[in-house]
Amino acid sequence: MVRRVVITGLGVVAPGGVGVKEYWELLTAGRTATRTISFYDASPFRSRVAAECDFDPAAAGLSPQETRRLDRAAQFAVVSTREALADSGLDTSALDPSRIGTSLGSAVGCTTSLEREYVVVSDGGRKWNVDHEYAVPELYRHFVPSSMAAEVGQEAGAEGPAAVVSTGCTSGLDSLGHAVELIREGTCDVMIAGATEAPISPITSACFDAIHATTPRNDTPESACRPFDRTRSGLVLGEGAAILVLEELESARRRGAHIYAEIAGFAARCNAYHMTGLKPDGREMAEAIDAALDEARLNPTAIDYINAHGSGTKMNDRHETGAFKRSLGDHAYATPVSSIKSMIGHSLGAIGSLEIAACALAMEHGVLPPTANLHEPDPELDLDYIPLTARERKTDTVLSVGSGFGGFQSAMLLARPERSAR
Amino acid sequence: MSTTTTKTEVTLADLTRMLRESAGEEEGVDLDGDVLDTPFIDLGYDSLALLQVIGQIQREYGIAIPDDAVVDAETPGALLDLINSGQASPA
Amino acid sequence: MTATATATPTAPAVRPAPATAPAVRTTAVVTGLGIAAPNGLGTEDYWRATLAGESGLGRVTRFDPSQYPSTIGGEVPGYVAEEHIPSRLMPQTDHMTRLALTAADWAVADAGIAPGDLPEYGMGVVTAASGGAVEFGQRELQNLWSQGKQYVSAYQSFAWFYAVNTGQISIRHKMRGPSGVLLTEQAGGVDSIGHARRHVRKGVPMVVSGGVDAALCPWGWVPQIASGLMSTVSDPSRAYLPFSAEASGYVPGEGGAILIVEDAESARERGAEHVYGAVAGYAATLDPAPGSGRPSALRRAAENALADAGVRPEDVDVVFADAAGTPELDRAEAKVLEEIFGARGVPVTAPKSMTGRLLAGGAALDAATALLALRDGVIPPTAGVAEADPGHRIDLVTGAREADLRTALVLARGHGGFNAALVLRRAH
User: Which NCBIfam families would you find in this protein's record (chain A) (predicted)?
Assistant: First the structure.
């Protein structure tokens, strides 16, 4: 008997608002949350835009102790965990804690806190032998981002397996894939799974600048991220978190849980090609899509919406358009595709989970979020990218993909659990 | 940057030295040979390697090289032309 | 690719269930090892030194430690990166990744896997990480903050991050199958092997697993000082004495192990040269929040791993302990061992007393060491410890001990509450 995994709770911190409701309003309005960086003086940088969260830890329910102890990314994760648990209606204290697991994605961990503390202990970069006497007690927790998974798990009363999954920009899909695996194999019945990232800091700006990955379109920050547009010029950094409550289907049904969608298939591949580069043919991403379809026992024609990686770099958007055509054949032309990074930026390790949350909401509401800022189609990119405005459409099967530094390519399929049983 | 720079011509020898420092040397490639018109890609250098070496040139020579150089300059000769022809501006 | 242009099917295109039942659960075996450790570079050097009780701990030389309360570490000796790493990779890799690539090369060669032996999507890479490539990261932070953003390397975008070892290993060996990176601090080595077995069970013939870490730079040192768990003893032979009455904290080291985890059937088919042992059982748990009043979940991890392997406690011939080296954490582990195996009920050893704790590399090296012990029928010692604190009612192995070993249990704990356990069984 195959154990199937469903999404029964959502919690989100995203640019444009804290909470699922604000998140969905932003996405369906086609509004963008990208702006000129306000967290630090970004004037030396080539790219000076980002999608920042207006996040007030106290207003979000964190105690002063939690705010002091936790990196910004961990704060996002804890706040999202609370919302997701409340949304699921699950009383974890009534469950066997050993059957609840934790899987948290993050690409760059507690980088904001680490850089802040580095500046202190190194005296502004002057000392190689940094000074331990200025180190805060939390420094080791920031140094090992696994601490964030422990924090989330302990928040939820989970005592099953816990880990941070860190596969660059596919972390947010891979952490969910990992969680699905733990439920399917019978290790856990419930997973607190998702991803978090708070990467907007000078060192992140500097390293993306150095490889021209981020857009230099600083004059119009609100339309700086232009996936699939002819004028696209790079990604826009974002931040945020999405935590999902995942449950085994039958036990979710028994307790009468609200089910957003089933995670029907997942696969990850590596391109083994380049740490940052992509080949235009999208072969390994297509391979991941095919394998996810196999796992879900779905044919490509079942897919009725694709939530694209759509980072807005020249290379990525070609690469994944190639992958969709490779896997879906002619059906790719009939399938609406959109990139919500146009609105909330690219939150690296978190974005995959934020996108799956958006996919679950799209299925729930029968509305597909658009690709904002897509005014001038790129003649090389000839799919239906849902420009500018959300589209009403009943959606039963959704594909979401991710692509990350390190060569990681991942694909996940959501479907309605009531489709014919396996 | 505190270094004061006088504008000097960047030679092929300078460039190959910096390529070695910034990006290493592909096995089977002789950077000391006639590589002026050999595409970077055939020398084993990808766009990251070029970005890294362009960064080094900018720092050492105190010049600003346009963003497009990494795409447009496909060979050492083309990159040197771009740097030495005045398209690069003092930083 | 059989889709039609008319598209939008009216019925979901669900495929029928396959006619055949899922395959019988496969056995995951380890067919290759690559080791870089403070007391030995390469498997045989390491194993010889470990059995001889030769420690690799000493005063740190990779940076000047004199200003710090802790000065002892475990550095991998005699590693000349240029002899192992192509020139093109040198500027874009940290010491950690170079060690990892070298250990992976050795493991693949040890397993006798040549390019083309296995399908490209049939090979995956799962590594553990803790704090990333810290030395590379510190250098770039320093470049940024002391000189400016134009001094930051183009390679910084990936060279420091947690996924770098998996990415570079997959590229170097053209392994395109399912891959991953797990972070559970010191428990990660065991988790990566457990996860590799998961992939093998799903039909991936071979997965490179384990962990190699290296945080011996000031920016890797100071956070560990802040943890309050590091030893401040300056005599290398007395600084890290797990389970002893003098236990005073841990000593960090660099290195680790890469293990080739393979489907037993597939290994047989390709004529694998040797099988070190089987990954028979695995489990992981998370401790409850501090102050919750609930007990640690270490015992459950160990018991679940034994149950997963289908072995009883009396079947276990040796335990490779986490051996944190602080009195409280040692007491907690010794208590769990007594609860499961009875007082002094099983030989317990901590060869990491000779290497220091290797962060993400530590538990992977313990697993590799356990496999070597199973192969040769000898338990390596806990060096430097004359006897266990009598308060710990464990049979601590303090000198190499020959024994008929069939089953080993590896325990690992990660800072913040992570527990992992691995049961390894000798190949027949």
Answer: PRK07314.1
Compute the average pLDDT of residues A207-215: 95
Residues constituting chain A: 422
What is the dotted CATH code of the domain comprising C282-426?
3.40.47.10
A39 CB-side CA count, 13 A: 23
Residue A169 in contact with residue A408, Cβ under 8 Å?
yes
Nearest CA in chain B to A276: B48
Query: What pTM was estimated for this model as a whole?
Result: 0.96
A319 flagged as catalytic:
no
Sort out which chain A residues have CB atoms less than 8 A from B46's CB and list them.
274, 277
Q: What are phi and psi of C208, to 5 degrees?
A: -80, 125
Tell me if chain A has a CB within 8 Å of the CB of B64.
Answer: no
Domain boundaries, chain C: 28-269, 282-426
Choosing from A53, A110, A142, A169, the catalytic residue is: A169
- For A164-198, the pLDDT digits (tens) are 999 999 999 999 999 999 999 999 999 999 999 99
For helices C298-309 and C327-341, angle between their N-to-C axes, nearest 10 degrees: 40
- From CA A228, how far away is CA A110, in angstroms rounded? 31
When CB atoms are compared, the residue of A212, A276, A277 closest to B67 is: A212
Say whether pLDDT at B4 is over 70.
Answer: no
> CB distance from B55 to chain A under 8 Å?
yes
| B34 close to C (CB below 8 A) | no
Confidence (pLDDT) at A269: 95
Residue A6 neighbours by CB distance under 10 Å: 29
CATH code for the domain defined by B12-25+35-90: 1.10.1200.10
Amino acid at C222: V
Measure CB to CB from residue B24 to each of C90, C151, C153 and give the nearest one: C90
CB-based contacts of A222-225 (< 8 A; 24+ apart in sequence): A222/A32, A222/A34, A222/A35, A223/A32, A223/A34, A223/A372, A223/A373, A224/A34, A224/A49, A224/A373, A225/A32, A225/A34, A225/A51, A225/A312, A225/A341, A225/A342, A225/A343, A225/A345, A225/A346, A225/A372, A225/A373
Cα separation of A351 and A196, whole Å?
A: 8
Q: β-strand C72-74 against A49-51: which pairing, if any?
A: unpaired
Structure tokens at A385: 């990218």
Q: How many Å apart are CA C241 and CA C228, to the nearest integer?
A: 16
CA-only gyration radius of chain C, Å: 22
Q: Measured between beta carbons, which residues in chain C are less than 8 angstroms from residue B27?
A: 86-88
Domain ranges of chain B: 12-25+35-90
Which domains occur in chain A, in start order? Answer: 5-110+145-415 (3.40.47.10)
Q: Does A406 touch chain B (CB under 8 A)?
A: no
Q: What is the pLDDT of residues A355-396, one digit of tens each?
A: 999 999 999 999 999 999 999 999 999 999 999 999 999 999
CATH H-level superfamily of C28-269: Thiolase/Chalcone synthase (3.40.47.10)
Residues of A in contact with C124 (CB under 8 A): 270
β-bridge partners, C128: C182
Cβ pair A269:C145 closer than 8 A: no
Please name the member of B1, B44, B55 whose beta carbon is closest to the beta carbon of C88: B44
Across the interface, of A147, A155, A406, the residue whose CB is closest to C158 is A406
Please judge whether B48 and A276 are an interchain contact, meaning their C-beta atoms are less than 8 angstroms apart. yes
Annotated catalytic, A309? yes
ipTM reported for the complex, 2 dp: 0.97
